[in-house]
Write a structure and sequence with these properties.
Length: 338
């Protein structure tokens, strides 16, 4: 299988990290590549250990997988170096000379910007400001920082060569469809496009490099920051339902609403999804907790998944039934996806 793209279908935080980590363990891809920027946090729980990733691909859980950061991505220097050191990724993690670097000044510029912080509800991680500098062609890139020298590689060339040899590359996109600068709920969006096409473009790959595009949808919809959220439920209701979550990067409480077929349908179509991964099924159906096969799911849960499939007209290949990567139901084989 060539490139397999994992992309979010709602407002981010659908569980792309845990899905990518599962896929990395299952398929042992030659490489995992991360796009986007360090405003996104990907949480992975594997064998009881919790990892909060800001820049590294979640595919790091498979030790033989090489890790790449896209050329079109933006990283904060300290976040990158801390994570590389903390996870012991030196020698395995590569960043492109042309990847953009976010500085303290970008963070400060955003945090002073009341419109961005209060109206839009930005994470204030400097990503938008760095993007502005990139567009104005004054942003400094990874090649301008001696500290990054040991990590530099022509990521586009290495991934192209791997794909041409028939290796598998797992592409991890960030945020979600409805936070896209072009297609989301503007102006309550992030500073980049968040589609599968954009993720491939950030890596310098083409649409035909991808043979599988998995859109990740959570069993309920969450959103941090401002902007519309159809069917949003009050805080007390979320507590009652057990839908309370906090942002990985900012710690802000996430707003939430029931699963939304209209939002899902558009995201699936725009990403030309081959399949969907559904996460947090156990939050809707506690009896489903950590079940690992379709047959073990309670009938109501199976019925609900079938309803989702019908609504979005796309097969659900993966179902997350618990926080740990190992709590996954995988129907990829029976669906002929691998
Ligand atoms: P910014 O991209 O940090 O400026 O934030 C703009 C909007 O996108 C805000 O509503 C943020 O909460 C949201 N956002 C940015 N990154 C993420 C993410 O990784 N998960 C969820 N929301 C995000
Ligand atoms: Mg997140």
């Amino acid at each position: 299988m060539p490139a397999h793209v994992v992309v979010g279908g709602f407002f981010g935080d659908e569980g792309k990290g845990r899905v990518a980590a599962y896929l990395a363990l299952r398929y042992r891809p030659w490489a995992a590549a991360r796009t986007g920027a360090s405003n996104a946090g990907h949480t992975v729980v594997y064998r009881g250990e919790r990892f909060r990733l800001r820049v590294s691909p979640a595919g790091f859980v498979n030790p033989s997988t090489r890790l790449y950061i896209a050329r079109g991505a933006l990283v904060a220097l300290d976040v990158f170096l801390d994570e590389a050191r903390g996870l012991g990724l030196r020698g395995r993690l590569f960043i492109d000379p042309m990847t953009g670097v976010i500085t303290r000044e970008h963070v400060e510029r955003e945090r002073r910007d009341e419109y961005l912080m209060k109206t839009v509800g930005s994470t204030g991680t400097g990503v938008g400001a760095a993007m502005v500098d990139r567009v104005l062609r004054r942003l400094r890139l990874a090649r301008d920082y001696p500290e990054l020298e040991p990590f530099l590689a022509d990521t586009q060339a290495e991934l192209m060569e791997a794909l041409d040899r028939g290796e598998t590359v797992l592409v991890e996109a960030s945020q979600g469809y409805w936070l896209s600068l072009y297609h989301g709920t503007y102006p309550y969006v992030t500073s980049r496009d968040t589609t599968a096409a954009a993720a491939l473009s950030e890596l310098g790959l083409g649409p035909r490099d991808a043979s599988r595009i998995t859109v990740v949808l959570k069993a309920f919809v969450t959103r941090v920051g401002s902007g519309p959220l159809p069917g949003e439920l009050p805080r007390e209701k979320l507590e009652e339902l057990g839908w309370v979550e906090y942002g990985t990067v900012t710690g802000r409480p996430r707003r939430a609403a029931p699963f939304n077929p209209e939002l899902a349908r558009r995201a699936v179509r725009a990403n030309t999804a081959t399949d969907v991964a559904l996460t947090k099924l156990d939050v809707l159906f506690p009896e489903a907790r950590c079940r690992r096969s379709w047959g073990e799911l309670p009938p109501e849960a199976r019925k609900w998944v079938a309803w989702v499939e019908e609504e979005i007209d796309t097969p659900v290949s993966l179902i997350a039934t618990g926080e740990d990567v190992e709590c996954t139901i995988d129907r990829s084989r029976e669906l002929g996806l691998d």
